Amino acid sequence: MKKALSLILFSFMAVALTSCTGEDDTPSQGGSVKFKLDGTQKEHVICIVLETEVQPDEYVLTLTSSNTEETGVFRYEIAPGVTGNVTPDFIAYQLSNKMMVANEGEYQTNVSVNSEGHLKGTFSGTFRSNLANDDEFITITDGTFDVYY
């Protein structure tokens, strides 16, 4: 009987200890960037956020995303902690052969979370080629990012 009781107690303790994952159950890293590129739905699941000191005591977060099936890369730069309808330091989409940049006034962004290793928000706009004498542009709509780093 003592063995059975000990086994039951040990089982309950093992379940209790393994079911606790810490104070919060959020992912430690990863996430996604989703958007429509000229009307075609895209999803990037390879997402990296790096915090860089650009000047003494001045930092910037750089979100870079892509997927394994295409050559397009999304890039978004913003200061840590900034939320709301903000102007990012930089927002662009890299095609296989050129960088498409969103100029101020031609895009909208809204950051709802920017703290404790989590960056979440929305974006859309017109992105233009950064090459001289090139009038090419792309339109990105319904953009969302939700990344843990």
Automatic annotation (TrEMBL):
Keywords: Signal. Residues 1-16 form the signal peptide. It comes from the Bacteria. The keyword Signal applies. This is Lipocalin-like domain-containing protein. It comes from Flavobacterium rakeshii.
